[in-house]
Amino acid sequence: MFSITLVIGNSSIPWTLLFKTEESFAVAETAVKNVMDNGGSFRVSDDFGQTVQAGDSIIQGVMFEDLDKSKLAHVAFSLHRSRMQVETQKAAEADPALRQARLMQGPSMISPMGNGGVPFSR
Known about the structure:
Low-confidence stretches: none
Number of helices: 3
């Protein structure tokens, strides 16, 4: 799938058009790029029944997106963030000041088995 996101007007409202095929996306992309480069107005319909009619003067920005590639980018970014969290945890465990602070805290006052591990019965 593909999308074209148009930022419309002074309020910067994003409008997203979605396309199932690369062919229908290419037609819309060409129309929008032509208007952005040469001025004028355009009317574009997506594959899900949405239609935008606008002029170049009210479009603040445009993003053309291959959603399959964007999905891969989100996965890669999420994995990167997870690796950073693991490295941060390892660094915190190796940090002498943080280790000392954990030792000074001692055991918790409230045990998760608050009644000494004996099940409550009536």
